[in-house]
Amino acid sequence: MIRTGRALVAIADRENREGLAQVLELCGLEPIFCSTPGEVRAILASEADDVVFCDAAFADGSFDDLPRAISSGQLGPRVIVCARLYDPAVYLDVMYRGAFDFIVYPYRTNEVRWILDTAFRGSSESAPKLKVNRGRATSTWESRHVTDSANSLPS
Fold first, then answer.
1. Would you call 41 helix, strand, or coil by DSSP?
2. Under a CB-based contact definition with an 8 Å cutoff, are residues 97 and 127 in contact?
3. Which member of 17, 18, 47, 78 lies 3.0 to 4.6 Å from 100 by CB, making a disulfide possible if both were Cys?
């Protein structure tokens, strides 16, 4: 069961941000909007939050600033990177650089709820495990979302 609380949302695209906000509210969380990685860090330094949803890149930096701060022990929440479109290269890049999970617009309530439940349990279970499948990298996220071979990772 998802608890009530807050989720920081640092997503530039209005439609993308509003879609996530609606789903977060359905999951019992209040979305708190931020516009830069610095603003996210400032909020997290003064108040505890468990989860941050953000773009892979910002005008003044990237999500990469957040997992680095988290892994160094400065911050505690999980960072979920959001994308407007599925791009296997971006997905692999953000997961290798420390994102907790990766999610693509349009957001599905059940999928967001599963990610949040896993994040709140403090488990790394939601971070997809990369495996080699006939000479190419695939992931549990990809197997959950990509069903047709035209959308899978290139060989």
1. helix
2. no
3. 78
- DSSP per-residue string spanning 123-142: -STTSPPPEEETTEEE-HHH
The helix (run of H) or strand (run of E) holding residue 18 is helix 14-26
Quick check: bond before 106 cis, omega within 30? yes
CA separation, residue 137 to residues 24, 88, 114 (Å): 31, 10, 24
- Are the C-beta atoms of residues 10 and 40 closer than 8 Å to each other? yes
Closest listed residue to residue 85, CA positions, set 100, 106, 64, 101? 106
Closest CA to 12 of 41, 47, 39, 46: 39
Domain 5-127 class in CATH: alpha beta
Tokens of 46: 């003064």
Partner residues linked to 53 by β-bridges: 9, 80
Write the pLDDT tens digit of every residue in 47-67: 766 788 988 877 666 666 665
